[in-house]
Amino acid sequence: MSDPILRLEGIHTDIAQYHILHGVDLEVPRGAVTMLLGRNGVGKTTTLRTVIGHWQARAGRILFDGAEITGAKTPDRARMGIGYVPEDMGIFSDLTVEENMTLAAATGPLDPARRDRIFEAFPPLRTFWRSPAGTLSGGQKQMLTIARAMAEERRLYLIDEPTKGLAPAIVSTMAGALRDLKRQGASILLVEQNFAVAKALGDYAAVMDDGRIVWAGEMQELATDAGLQERLMGLSMEAQ
């Protein structure tokens, strides 16, 4: 990987008195989907939040498109072209879908062409454009969460468990939207527990355990090697 869009070098992150990341080394290839996998509680969400700047790394370096951003504030990282989709959605329930999208387009009005691409990816958002976001179903709220990150051009998307708890039809819609993002040239770092989704979407994978990356390589290699899955994650994920 000669020119990754994101590189983490020896990242250590603490939350209160807890040492969560223990020297994370990770490279995210440009224009591809990289799956960040592992059991619950091993540091995947903390890794994403450290990249976007919600938590500051205590040691190590973060390089985005060749520039060090380790000490940068979250708004500055967003302006550089990093979008973050949290697991807890983070939408404004009392505002309409349109108002949520308007707030997400921080540099100016939402571009109509971009809005139409979002409608193509997530048709329910067109239907409920003027409705309060709090009235949406769980799957529709997750669509809005991802759409908010798409409100402006992003070079890197950090997405935390977008399909968790969703019906298969909604999962399929999500997967299609993420494929479209990749076709448009975006790079994606995606935390996902659904191995079928990871296998279908991922170009590369990195597996975490105890706050470290313990394996990294092509998703196809992990997806076709049940023994490797069991060794890294304690179970054959082909059964998932």
Automatic annotation (TrEMBL):
Domain ABC transporter: 6-235
InterPro entries per the UniProt record, alphabetical: AAA+_ATPase, ABC_transporter-like_ATP-bd, ABC_transporter-like_CS, BCAA_Transport_ATP-bd_LivF, P-loop_NTPase
GO biological processes: L-amino acid transport
Claim: ATP-binding is one of the keywords in the record: yes
Entry GO MF terms: ATP binding; ATP hydrolysis activity; branched-chain amino acid transmembrane transporter activity
CDD domains associated with the record: ABC_TM1139_LivF_branched
Source superkingdom: Bacteria
Keyword annotations of the record: Amino-acid transport, ATP-binding, Nucleotide-binding, Transport
Family in the record: Belongs to the ABC transporter superfamily.
Name of the protein in its database record: ABC transporter ATP-binding protein
